[in-house]
């Protein structure tokens, strides 16, 4: 009989366990047990059945425990060995994973409840710091760096122009660049909501920027469409169309071709010029136009004689513009993470191409003449001229794209503690480098072309320089590809700025991002159709001269006034310190990320220079012209409307928000920091600076330390409002008013 325990019932009704013994070892116990069984047979029968069930249960439980224990011990041995092998493998892959993560080709682990590349509030994140930097570089470095800057340097004394340009960059361009990046990053909002959080009455500043980006992006896309037509002619091997005078659109009495002149010169018969397809000693006196100029106006633009003559649609420009917007829509389909990956190509290849063109340019015959004119023979008398400083200041403002809202929008997708100061330095340097380096490449070909044409450098037509080189198709393709990439990388941000503002203003649109960005592209395409007509070039001139000038200056000055004068320099400095920490060194207190230099610059220098730019852009002494053709007065009137209309968003939104807060209870709340602002508790006196700082540190204790990490988690807005409600209830119970803040 097996030795197991059974339950017996005592007089008190409590079951006790009695060990079962062997019958052959204890006779007295056996007799007692038989008497008990005979007197209580029925109870024994029932109890026996209960004992059998209890025994089976105990044996089953014990067996399961033993089985699980054996299985755990069996599985633990190979698991430990496998863990060691995985540990060794992970060590070997660490460097590779970090490199892939840095360029955004590998995603880090993210919380299971978040979408890929989003924070706790559902806002997207950049795939890496590199992607953000390259996107900002692609946005800032545009077509103006290649053509406008060399032209200004050519006009204002060559290398002497670098003096006012660098000064304006240091005292105006770079501080504003850093200012906008830090605003977007700190508030995690695009233009439409960023200034609303500072003071709701200033919400119109952000919408002014958005409106400007919409209008500028509309005509900027037309330039890319023109470049696309040149690329089409190159791919179809018709690149000689803009270098000869044998086409149906050429005026034989006015057209001149450098290639034809070179052929006549090479014949060695003293006939150095081509006229009507024949070599002559000299052309008759008259007005002549380059073959490239006639190709652009008569074949690409197919322009009419005046802005009133809108009779035909230029279908090749229309088709090129449509294709360009389709490409942009696909690029914006998945948001900034997709744009960042595209920027790895569109923002880097132009630098490779300009380096190739630079090497080719400086190796051309007599290229040193152009370089000497640009760098080694500066005319410093231009430094003392107001017009030189005016041109440098305007070039810096529009070259770095401050006041358009794009920088603010892109920075809003950063980590809260990302080092945007470093990024501002890199972007400013890359922009200046492309302008100066591109100028050397342009002037080197200018010197070569002056030698070929036998002219002074100031009389050279630079558009035909590439056509005279060996393997001209290759150099032309690289040049126009560079222009296309520079243009489309800027256009991505213009369209994304509009989409970001709409999604921040109307959060319900975020799940429909793809449809929203597509609708934005369609809207900008429809506005640009007027520039696809035969009078399109005149409308392009109006948009170019007016839309990106007045309102941009107003936005630059207004954003500084909002943050530094109404929100307060002390509050803004504390906000910066919450992102970057307090300065550790004495020099950092003055010129560091939160230094006094930037505070003084933002308070005095930047608004002053911004006002100067506004006066310069408004000062017009003659009507708008294309070439020698002056546009009618009504065209200038439309230009003024387009230029000033975005600025009207500031008073309109101020009035609207005052009315909204008046209906809610107190219209004065429109002049106070909004509760969605990160520093609301500190600014309103609900938390001391120390308490608020500690809370910020705790909120970001679990955040990923890697800048640009897509899985980084910012503090939940819900937790902020829970704390806010608690603070308000405590304040009301104590019958105390929040401490006032001088801002």
From TrEMBL:
Cysteine disulfide partners in this protein: 245-255
Region Disordered: list its residue ranges.
Answer: 1-50
Q: Can you provide one Gene Ontology molecular function annotated for this UniProt record?
A: gamma-aminobutyric acid:sodium:chloride symporter activity
Supply the alphabetized keyword list. Answer: Disulfide bond, Membrane, Metal-binding, Sodium, Symport, Transmembrane, Transmembrane helix, Transport
The entry's Na(+)-binding residues are 138, 140-141, 145, 399, 486
Look up the domain of life of the source. Answer: Eukaryota
Query: Where in the cell?
Result: Membrane
Q: What is its main location?
A: membrane
SUPFAM superfamilies noted in UniProt: SNF-like
| Membrane disposition | Multi-pass membrane protein
PANTHER family named among the record's database cross-references: SODIUM-DEPENDENT TRANSPORTER SNF-5, SODIUM/CHLORIDE DEPENDENT TRANSPORTER
What is the name of this protein? Uncharacterized protein
Name the source organism: Mesorhabditis belari
Q: What is the lineage of its organism?
A: Eukaryota, Metazoa, Ecdysozoa, Nematoda, Chromadorea
